[in-house]
């Protein structure tokens, strides 16, 4: 099974008495877009934090191409090519958009001039080229999400984890960003992991879907299999998303 | 080891610590609710000292009685500072409030120096010379009164926070400002009340220490630093913890003075402080 | 075109342009002229501006950490005092050049700052806790200095006059000599600040100041960036402490380590604008001017300058959160926007 890029093995996370992740196993395979869904509090963001190194798991291991990276910090993992966006986007407000993105390119070893070029290109790709010299504080919500995407791409990710990039966007913005992510997947060759509440977006983008519930994997398979699974419908879709 | 000296140091430390404690309680309350590190807290303490000095000069009443008037003064000053200077800045979520309290600290100290000069002022209580003894050790009655009043104030504040509508409102704001707002609470009013109570604690602490130390424009700095230490030891934001933290520092100081020359006892206090910041930022409380 | 730009043919006109250098040259010329102006003044005013410039340098040193990284260190008296004591002790006790003492001070200050910050980062002491944490370190040094025989306890250390002293001993028969040293130090501190701000480290610090988790997720090594910055900031501050002790030929625990010294250092930078290269200088000049003016016109009230300072800080927090210098930047932006339209 050499096509496994990254995996979480038997991961547990406890916050005080709360068990946010329980004996969780997850594989991210080469060339796939993996969607992770689940109701609020299912542990999706915690899982991202564990994979990205923002939280050290209580027990269990995180592997990148077979190498144990459980004890490496968030910034080290970013430089290894594990990149993530945040659910609540917090760009560097006082800085220009180019600098917001360029600092990430700089961190993976680009020189400053080159980092600026990379940043400008990425801003073009996410459609923010005309605002490159503006400050991040001047951006609207949807634009900030796209800036975050550009920043996450700047570390040249092998694994790109997008946490609710579509939350709070209006339908036309969602359509735009779905298109954007589609083209990015095609172009960049990095594995894509997607946390999303918007199931229609997951269905149209993901090759494989993992459903989390109460810190455990409830289902794992193709979108059609998973969303047709009565277990999933009962635990999650049936109560909250039956009509959406 | 001389047992009389040990007793003297430990109980003396306890008395001092109660003063640190009551000052720390105000700092902890303001941090816990308004999330502000109030650098003006020392200036409030100073105002409490001078208020008692002025009132004593004017009425000749016992300073311990006047300490209750100082509470009123503190309530007024805290409320005004919050309403007039801090409320607008807190919304921006930047370093603004910290700067304002820094400016207040400098300005208030300057005003005190301008009005009262740098010559030390003293306030005498009728109790100032009376002593009592525990075993072989002798203590001033005034110290015991300070301890009693400090405990009474802290217990009173704690009761107010736990059992009144005002207190429930303040606790709601401290837990979740947005939720408190949605519940229809007047967050602005509650924050002003919080600052008023915090300043009242500072004024009270200043008033109590007015009988113990010579009053100068720089007299509150030590108490400010000690109350910061105590508030962190208690787990910033925790009222009871802050008071216990204060008492603990007093005792550490007292015990330290047995082994260490001069002011080195304070060195130990700061060492403990740094240790807590590093290893137990949640303070003395047991981990959840 | 060195990157993967092949996918998008859009013209690249958004490269942030470099600011015209003419303004900078004129600015430096004006600053140099102003810096030399006190040389023609009285001995008294020369002394005042010597101290003002030393503190401008110290404050620029603070701003490397306090402005660029977003940390709020409130204990820079620790580094200032280490510089002061090191230069005084090396000169008074070992009869070596105070310049050497300053270097010793820089090394000790940088080492202490590094240790402090390594611990603070490791145990996540941030925000207001970091301010109190640094303040506590400075207090410990103050207490230590006032109890150590080696450092003269509360009496401090006297820097003796030396017969046939020269610039190597930092003693000048003409007071203009020391003034020029102060000018040089302030300029050096500002240059170092600017170099850091423009360097890759400066980019990283700006990201950390913006949002730490996002910076880390962007691959920025937060711990390393902050420890290096604090060490550099401490070393630059220590130089100023050394110069100050040599200038007043004396150092004691209160002059070196008192909380008010830490506050003074920070306030000068904040007043002028802590993220701007000219901020600490502006703040320091403003503070010295206010002190001198109030002393001249309100002689009876020696604390009046502090009152003005306190009120100025409060006003600043309300209306000009980026300091005096920030006001200038804002005006300049409005100006350039207007001229764009023409």
UniProtKB/TrEMBL annotation, chain A:
The cross-references to Gene3D superfamilies, in alphabetical order and at most eight, read: P-loop containing nucleotide triphosphate hydrolases
This chain's protein is named: Branched-chain amino acid transport system ATP-binding protein
Does the record carry Transmembrane helix as a key word?
no
Keywords per UniProt: ATP-binding, Nucleotide-binding, Transport
Per the UniProt entry, what species is this protein from, by scientific name?
Nocardioides soli
Q: Name one GO molecular function term.
A: ATP binding
Q: Does the keyword ATP-binding apply?
A: yes
Upper lineage = Bacteria, Bacillati, Actinomycetota, Actinomycetes, Propionibacteriales
One Pfam family for this entry, by name? Answer: ABC_tran
From TrEMBL, chain C:
What stretches pass through the bilayer? 21-40, 46-64, 71-92, 98-121, 177-196, 265-286, 306-329
**Pfam (any one):** BPD_transp_2
Q: Which UniProt keywords apply?
A: Cell membrane, Membrane, Transmembrane, Transmembrane helix
Localization terms from the record: Cell membrane
Q: One GO molecular-function annotation for this sequence?
A: branched-chain amino acid transmembrane transporter activity
Q: Which organism does this sequence originate in?
A: Nocardioides soli
Protein name per Swiss-Prot or TrEMBL:
Branched-chain amino acid transport system permease protein
Q: Which residues form a coiled coil?
A: none
Query: Is Cell membrane set as a keyword in this record?
Result: yes
Its membrane topology: Multi-pass membrane protein
> What cellular component terms from Gene Ontology apply here?
plasma membrane
Asked whether the keyword Cell membrane is assigned, the reply is yes
């Amino acid at each position: 099974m050499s096509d496994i890029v990254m995996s979480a093995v038997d991961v547990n996370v406890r916050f005080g008495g709360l068990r946010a992740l329980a004996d969780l196993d997850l594989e991210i395979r080469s060339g796939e877009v993996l969607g992770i869904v689940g109701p609020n509090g299912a542990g999706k963001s915690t899982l991202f934090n564990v994979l990205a190194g923002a939280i050290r798991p209580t027990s269990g291991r995180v592997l990148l191409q077979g190498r144990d990276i459980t004890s490496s910090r968030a910034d080290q993992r970013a430089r290894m090519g594990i990149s993530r966006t945040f659910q609540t986007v917090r760009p560097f407000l006082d800085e220009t958009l180019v600098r917001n993105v360029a600092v990430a390119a700089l961190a993976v070893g680009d020189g400053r001039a080159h980092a600026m070029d990379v940043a400008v290109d990425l801003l073009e790709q996410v459609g923010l080229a005309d605002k490159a010299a503006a400050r991040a504080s001047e951006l609207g919500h949807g634009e900030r999400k796209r800036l975050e995407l550009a920043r996450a791409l700047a570390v040249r990710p092998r694994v790109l984890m997008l946490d609710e990039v579509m939350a709070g966007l209006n339908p036309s913005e969602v359509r735009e960003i779905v298109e954007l992510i589609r083209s990015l997947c095609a172009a960049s060759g990095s594995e894509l992991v997607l946390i999303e509440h918007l199931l229609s977006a997951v269905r149209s983008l993901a090759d494989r879907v993992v459903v989390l519930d109460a810190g455990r994997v409830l289902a794992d398979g193709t979108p059609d299999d998973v969303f047709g699974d009565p277990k999933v419908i009962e635990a999650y879709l049936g109560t909250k998303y039956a009509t959406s | 080891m001389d047992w009389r000296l040990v007793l003297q140091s430990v109980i003396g430390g306890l008395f001092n610590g109660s003063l640190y404690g009551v000052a720390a309680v105000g700092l902890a309350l303001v941090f816990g609710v308004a999330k502000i590190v109030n650098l003006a807290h020392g200036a409030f303490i100073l105002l409490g000292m001078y208020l008692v000095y002025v009132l004593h000069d004017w009425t000749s009443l016992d300073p311990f009685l006047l300490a209750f008037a100082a509470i009123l003064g503190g309530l007024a000053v805290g409320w005004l500072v919050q309403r007039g200077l801090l409320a607008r800045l807190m919304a921006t979520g930047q370093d603004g409030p910290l700067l304002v309290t820094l400016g207040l600290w400098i300005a208030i100290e300057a005003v005190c120096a301008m009005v009262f000069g740098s010559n030390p002022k003293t306030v005498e209580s009728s109790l100032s010379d009376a002593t009592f003894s525990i075993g072989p050790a002798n203590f001033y009655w005034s110290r015991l009164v300070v301890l009693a009043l400090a405990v009474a104030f802290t217990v009173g504040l704690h009761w107010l926070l736990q059992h009144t509508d005002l207190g429930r409102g303040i606790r709601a704001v401290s837990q979740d400002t947005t939720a408190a707002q949605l519940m229809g609470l007047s967050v602005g009013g509650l924050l002003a009340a919080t600052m008023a109570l915090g300043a009242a604690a500072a004024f009270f602490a200043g008033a109590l220490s007015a009988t113990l130390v010579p009053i100068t424009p720089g007299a509150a700095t030590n108490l400010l630093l000690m109350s910061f230490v105590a508030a962190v030891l208690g787990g910033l934001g925790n009222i009871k913890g802050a008071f216990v933290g204060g008492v603990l520092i007093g005792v550490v100081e007292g015990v330290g003075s047995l082994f260490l020359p001069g002011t080195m006892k304070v060195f130990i206090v700061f060492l403990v402080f740094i240790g807590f910041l590093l290893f137990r930022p949640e303070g003395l409380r047991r981990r959840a | 075109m060195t990157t993967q730009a092949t996918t998008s043919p859009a013209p690249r006109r958004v490269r942030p342009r470099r600011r015209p250098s003419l303004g900078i040259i004129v600015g430096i010329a004006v600053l140099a002229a102003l810096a030399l102006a006190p040389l023609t003044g009285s001995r008294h005013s020369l002394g005042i501006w010597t101290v003002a410039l030393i503190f401008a340098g110290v404050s620029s040193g603070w701003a490397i950490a306090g402005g660029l990284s977003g940390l709020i260190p409130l204990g820079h008296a620790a580094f200032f005092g280490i510089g002061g004591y090191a230069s005084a002790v090396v000169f008074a006790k070992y009869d070596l050049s105070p310049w050497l003492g300053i270097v010793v001070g820089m090394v000790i200050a940088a080492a202490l700052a590094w240790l402090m910050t390594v611990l603070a980062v490791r145990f996540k002491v941030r925000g207001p806790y970091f301010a109190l944490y640094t303040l506590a370190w400075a207090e410990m040094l103050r207490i230590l200095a006032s109890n150590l025989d080696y450092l003269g306890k509360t009496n401090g250390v006297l820097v003796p006059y030396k017969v046939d002293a020269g610039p190597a001993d930092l003693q000048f028969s003409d007071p203009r000599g020391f003034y020029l040293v102060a000018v040089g130090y302030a300029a050096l501190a500002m240059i170092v600040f600017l170099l850091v701000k423009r360097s890759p480290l400066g980019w990283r610090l700006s990201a950390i100041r913006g949002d730490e988790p996002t910076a880390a997720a962007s691959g920025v090594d937060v711990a390393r960036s902050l420890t290096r910055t604090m060490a550099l900031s401490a070393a630059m501050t220590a130089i100023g402490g050394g110069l100050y002790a040599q200038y007043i030929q004396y150092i004691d625990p209160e002059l070196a380590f008192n909380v008010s010294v830490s506050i003074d250092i920070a306030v000068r930078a904040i007043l002028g604008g802590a993220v701007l290269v000219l901020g600490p200088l502006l703040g320091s000049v403003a503070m010295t001017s206010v002190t001198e003016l109030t002393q001249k016109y309100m002689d009876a009230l020696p604390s009046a300058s502090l009152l003005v300072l306190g009120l100025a800080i409060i006003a600043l927090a309300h209306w000009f959160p980026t300091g005096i210098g920030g006001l200038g930047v804002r005006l300049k932006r409005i100006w350039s926007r207007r001229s764009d339209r023409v």
